[in-house]
Amino acid sequence: MNANADQRLEQLLSEQYDAFQAIHESWGQGETYFNWGYQTALHQPLAATRERLVCEVFRALGPGPGDRIIDVGFGSGAQDLWAARHHDFAELIGFNISARQVQEARRRAAELGLDGRLRFHHQPAEDMAALADASADGLVAIECAPHFDRPRFYKEAARVLRPGARMVLADICFCAALSPAIRSGPPPLRRMGTIRDNQASWSPWFVTRELRNINWQTLPGCQRTVFAVLRSLARVDAGPHRRHWVELAKTSQIMSIGLLVRAIRYDLIVLERR
Ligand SMILES: C[S@@+](CC[C@H](N)C(=O)[O-])C[C@H]1O[C@@H](n2cnc3c(N)ncnc32)[C@H](O)[C@@H]1O
């Protein structure tokens, strides 16, 4: 992809997530999760399934006392506030391209007296300039890697992680059979990639420790997101925010069908820095 197309896509994504954040803030729900959740039984509240996904990812990371961990694409920061309450790490550094989400995450961390432990940067995951080489002990990426320029991201993650450090992703991509079509597809699809191409792209730096398919646990929340967005549409003012909200319903519906027919996969991936 050329540099201009990359910049345009990043601009669009930051506008989208600024809009999603603004909508939640207008409802008094600035601290919220933006993932599809991990559902294991009927009738679980959507918010609880979303927290469960965060829990699965941090459990797989297993941070310890003294660890410095990274969270890329941290949404409103809700997952890091949760992690700070449930895990005993020294410091968490977040990277996000949505200025509004960074602002909210910093505000809540300061309000809770956690701003010494949780630090949030308005910088892309592909360029964690705030971090020195091999300076971090772990990294999480929850439902955001499909937006990344993956080859650049894997290389940058490998730069900042020390050897043996874990990187855990709740990740969405296309199935291997679609590789030829996706390679010549439009930029957002190319960024999602296929499992085969993504694995080839991370393997120079990372050993795959676990690759667990979680389509069935994430599909219900993906579909419920469509319903929730449509139900709330009347509460979103007409204008650019509403346009992004409608787009979210459309994309989630397509994703939901993709997960059902397994053209799209949702995986919990545990990698180890070589
Ligand atoms: C689907 S949301 C997931 C948010 C959060 N991890 C969660 O599960 O609630 C995707 C997040 O990735 C962020 N994002 C997208 N592209 C990014 C990039 N290149 N670098 C850092 N963050 C990015 C968005 O701003 C948004 O916060």
Task: Give the helix/strand layout.
Blueprint: H1 3-26, H2 46-61, E1 68-72, H3 78-86, E2 91-95, H4 99-111, E3 118-121, E4 136-142, H5 150-160, E5 161-174, H6 179-183, H7 187-192, H8 195-202, E6 206-213, H9 215-232, H10 240-261, E7 264-273
Parallel strand pairs: 1-2, 1-4, 2-3, 4-5
Antiparallel strand pairs: 5-7, 6-7
Helix pairs in contact: 1-10, 9-10
The chain binds S-adenosylmethionine.
Q: What is the CATH C-level name? A: Alpha Beta
Secondary-structure element pattern, one letter each: HHEHEHEEHEHHHEHHE
Strands in their spatial order, largest beta sheet: 3-2-1-4-5-7-6
The CATH superfamily bears the name Vaccinia Virus protein VP39
Average pLDDT, to the nearest integer?
96
Domain Methyltransferase type: 70-168
GO biological process, one term: methylation
Organism: Enhygromyxa salina
GO molecular function: erythromycin 3''-o-methyltransferase activity; S-adenosylmethionine-dependent methyltransferase activity
Give a verbal description of the structure.
The protein is of the alpha/beta class. It has one domain: 3-Layer(aba) Sandwich (Rossmann fold). 48% of the residues lie in helices and 19% in strands. The chain has helices at residues 3-26, 46-61, 78-86, 99-111, 150-160, 179-183, 187-192, 195-202, 215-232, 240-261; strands at residues 68-72, 91-95, 118-121, 136-142, 161-174, 206-213, 264-273. It has a seven-stranded mixed β-sheet. The longest helix has 24 residues, at 3-26. The two termini are 28 Å apart. The model has no long low-confidence stretch (mean pLDDT 96). Bound molecules: S-adenosylmethionine (SAM). It comes from Enhygromyxa salina. This is Erythromycin 3''-O-methyltransferase.
